[in-house]
């Protein structure tokens, strides 16, 4: 039976997905007088082969028992993709999802050696909540305000939506923002009962109206990395391509390395490193 937190998330997620599906998508003839966006609850119940009362209770977040067979039928009716299906099952706790543990307080020193060896490429260690745990000299040169921020704001998602003064402007933020939030929700559903995750989301929704609006869409997708284009004062534009590797010995911790995407970016980033060295 889902927890109170997951029931709220499950309710809002189902409502948002139902509103997204048009009657025509599932073979229902459109009518002129239709006040409900997307499908009606009774239509979802009928198409999924479940009782209208049961589905209504599910969408209202009531504490009812849910089977994988019924969730499969609801997912097909709402035309959920693989990531959305996984998100639905995690919220319904069918089966009980694995929880990604927080990384240990102290990471072994040899990881610092790895980060240093990657210099002059910006590299960092980041956890599932996108908190930046360790970094090298090149990453600090690119993100001086981020690495000096307090732990609660030393976070790549916070940087994207509520960057502190002194951070380089992300030129393609509008392109990245929806994907970043959908990927973060994918991980959030695995940790929705953790007060630290809930607090982070609440603080970021307060700090960023854009994040709050995107979070309310309940979109979910497998996390993936994409190029970031920075506009650095006195340097110009730098486009960096990210590569991510999970650390086998530390579940939830990833090594992320950024490489210049083109010659101009490489030249501009070299200028940034020289400037940082002389500060």
Describe the protein.
With 279 residues, this protein is α+β, with helices and mostly antiparallel strands. The protein has a 6-stranded antiparallel beta sheet. The N and C termini lie far apart (57 Å). The mean pLDDT is 88. It has helices at residues 4-20, 41-48, 52-59, 68-77, 82-92, 110-118, 137-142, 144-147, 156-162, 173-188, 195-207, 209-215, 263-277, and strands at residues 123-126, 132-135, 169-170, 228-232, 236-246, 254-260. It comes from Streptomyces anthocyanicus. Residues 110-271 form the MmyB-like transcription regulator ligand binding domain. This is Helix-turn-helix transcriptional regulator.
What are the salient characteristics of this protein?
alpha+beta; six-stranded antiparallel sheet; 13 helices; 47% helix; elongated
Helix/strand layout:
Layout: H1 4-20, H2 41-48, H3 52-59, H4 68-77, H5 82-92, H6 110-118, E1 123-126, E2 132-135, H7 137-142, H8 144-147, H9 156-162, E3 169-170, H10 173-188, H11 195-207, H12 209-215, E4 228-232, E5 236-246, E6 254-260, H13 263-277
Antiparallel strand pairs: 1-2, 1-6, 3-4, 4-5, 5-6
Put the structure in a nutshell.
This is Helix-turn-helix transcriptional regulator. The chain has helices spanning about 5-20, 40-50, 50-60, 70-75, 80-90, 110-120, 135-140, 145, 155-160, 175-190, 195-205, 210-215, 265-275, and strands at about 125, 130-135, 170, 230, 235-245, 255-260. The protein is of the alpha+beta class and about 280 residues long.
